[in-house]
Amino acid sequence: MSISDEKYVLITTFRKNGDAVSSPVWIAPLADGTAGFTTEDGSGKVKRIRNNPRVTLQPCSVKGTVKHGSAVVEASAAVMLGADAQPVRDAITGKYSLMVKLFKVGELWRQIRRKPEPVVCAVVLTLG
Question: Residues 45, 46, 47, 49: is their CA dihedral positive or negative?
């Protein structure tokens, strides 16, 4: 089983000073053998990846608890915006269709409260 087949993955990004920061994300395999996830453009993950593309991945639970005995996978990350992000968005929607629909209900609440729409981007992971 590949890391991109997992339901949740703990991604660890690195601050400029080298400190590790981990967060659970959904992940989906892409046609070219890479993997990806979506997030908001202003997130800490994106800021750290733009400074340092090195990341590690490990299977985890929705809360970020690492699966016992799982291996750490090294990867390189790249932030994608606009049309470049669409293949990742499509892969996430395909793999997590029910959850994506539930999150869209939350988007309706954001629109009712007239909050600005966040810029959604994608992160492509080159494994190994």
Answer: positive
Q: What percent of the chain has pLDDT over 70?
A: 83
User: 41, 57, 58, 47: which is closest to 15 by C-alpha?
Assistant: 47
- What sign does the dihedral 104-108-113-114 (CA atoms) show? positive
Number of domains in the chain: 1
Query: Residue 4 has which token pair?
Result: 């991109």
CATH value at residue 44? 2.30.110.10
Expressed as residue numbers, the domain containing 93 is 3-127
pLDDT, position 111: 61
* HSE-up of residue 23 (Cα within 13 Å, Cβ side): 14
The model's pTM: 0.84
CB-based burial of residue 67 (10 Å sphere; 0-12 exposed, 13-18 middle, 19+ buried)?
middle
